[in-house]
Task: structure prediction
Amino acid sequence: MHSSLPVYVNSLRVGLKLKGMRECKVSRTAMDNPLMLMIPGPTPVPEQVLLASAQPPISHRSLEFQTLMAQVTADLKWLHQTQNDVLILASSGTGAMEAGILNFLSPGDRVLVGCNGKFGERWANLCDKFGLITERITAPWGCPLDPQAFRRHLEADQAKQIKAMIVTHSETSTGVLNDLAAIAQAVTVHAQALVIVDAVTSLGVCPVPVDTWGLDVVVSASQKGYRMPPGLGFVAVSPKAWQAYTTAQFPRFYFDLGEYQKAAATHTTPFTPPINLFFALQASLGMMRSQGLAALFSHQQRLMQATRAAMRALDLPLFVPTDTLASPAVTAIAPEHVDPEQLRSQLQKQYGVVIAPGQDHLRGKLLRIGHLGHICERDILTTVAALEATLSDLGHKIQPGEGIQAVRCCFDQI
Amino acid sequence: MHSSLPVYVNSLRVGLKLKGMRECKVSRTAMDNPLMLMIPGPTPVPEQVLLASAQPPISHRSLEFQTLMAQVTADLKWLHQTQNDVLILASSGTGAMEAGILNFLSPGDRVLVGCNGKFGERWANLCDKFGLITERITAPWGCPLDPQAFRRHLEADQAKQIKAMIVTHSETSTGVLNDLAAIAQAVTVHAQALVIVDAVTSLGVCPVPVDTWGLDVVVSASQKGYRMPPGLGFVAVSPKAWQAYTTAQFPRFYFDLGEYQKAAATHTTPFTPPINLFFALQASLGMMRSQGLAALFSHQQRLMQATRAAMRALDLPLFVPTDTLASPAVTAIAPEHVDPEQLRSQLQKQYGVVIAPGQDHLRGKLLRIGHLGHICERDILTTVAALEATLSDLGHKIQPGEGIQAVRCCFDQI
Result:
């Protein structure tokens, strides 16, 4: 496996030297000591999922593929807690978002978009680009969207011109978990607007009961809660959304979900699927099913609570102070007495732990610790230990062990 | 690795039984004896490419990824023999085709589409769906497109209303290799129309010198000549096409190639890339570069010539009789005294060799043997031996060894 890597591994070393940073003390290549990804995607992936993806491709027009397709489709419905169609695209999450718009709306339609972070803004930009009339329901980055603001807008729309309400469930850029249940409930006053949801960092991480909450279009991507590599997008589609599909006017071909639905009826895909990623999907969903939804979600809660307890103990302010508003996918901190970029850089160089910076105007102000995907308790302990060590390395006075102790107590209690 | 497979492997066996077919004599699972893919994609993939793809994901916002991205981009330009941008999409080839239209044309534009097979028709359908005024230059399936027909159409367009000429280089559905050089040359009488090309089964298989031939937009996909799994699409874009981009009016977001170009300038991607497929791409392009273009193409010529010689020896009529019109990616035969579907089915069940059926109206009439991707001389020998054996099994009188002998002679001579 090393043979394919020398160029980038060498360049990594050269690059570090060029930037004048101290070289990593531990000799590291991607294989013998990969960096530890504590970012909100791509996430670590179980070895058996990676190995499943390395099987020789099979024909996508075969009984084997049909059987595989039938199984992953059933498992996806289980994960979404839905009877709706769940369709699989060869695309990133953004491709799935685009499919979620193109198939159910027409140019000039009015849409309400919740914007309290980068991914809410991405929805709004996408809608703007496609010539929709986009109205933003905003909240400051780091604060949750107000379900009542949606309700007021929808109640005021007596002419029923608003065709969809678009919400990001877990806002990856800030670590806010929007109250999707309450926001979806707000739509019931309107009856017509579709509920279109970005569940990219909530599916597999916390409950997204699609049918119970009445979500019409739910978009996700493989490199997050699915515990697999990037490259697949998913769109769950309700009967109400299929109704809207029949009159939607955007031109579409590759992302025409009707074609995917038609093909799925015979357990296939309209275009060549990324077969090896389907192998990975089969393996990862199989692991998830064997754990069960309740265990998956309580595991994520433990990781989040422990991370938050450690940040408090280390005096690293939580960007989302209230636990009930926090995403179990990612914890954002806004360090006050530490340069975030120096902390992040040193953590990676010295200890091989990668955390994410803030995005857009919060770059240089925020740090984001991802704890979704194939992450266990030990990984949280490791990350907090490395953070403690890095803070000490950078000359910050901390009481060694306080973060670790907070993690331990948390795991003890919940 | 077996753990992820029991369901589909079991179902494969059950499925075969249910259909009343004789069970395969050789106990087979996807791992211990995978079916041999002699179809025009997905192709067999070298083990080191599969293993490269099974490495733990890295962050796509990292120096490691930038270095990887810079390397694969340079290697893609080498493969395309171009100085133009070559952009990488998370999509199938059809997604790349759509990007090749959306970014350079506007609703109502006139386009000339070459149609002599299923993939030419797919271009035309795509153009129709997007509201272009599509004029088809047709030839019967199995016959090549006439460059002069393009020239006549373009000469007649004094008002320069035709914005693009769209051609499938290697028509996978029939095994015809269209004369792309001559067709592209025909555009020079027009000066304005873009040359948009589907090189999905010609890149890496036969010369596609993008700059020499003046190709403006060239689309391909990873599961063909690239010798890797499906999931990546590629689009090469000329300066003339970028000029058209500035006035193109289709709404676009996920497939907005301008964003990919902007990101590529700093060796990154606008959306999360399928990182593990990038590892595979790096490995496969590395192998291809170490072989060299001339060796790659002459290897493919040998495989094609040997396959064609064997079909002649076995009295299985070639659908494209003239060697110079035949694609080095796939050889189609139109058996006269054998039921194609019975032959194909028996070949797979008894000997584990998968070949492809005809498509659309040629299903049940044609068989297609793919010989692109990670295929060697031995694989052609194996396929021909299995074909001979299957013909005998089905009671057809053939002289055993004639096909094999033809292959051997061919390899001896070229």
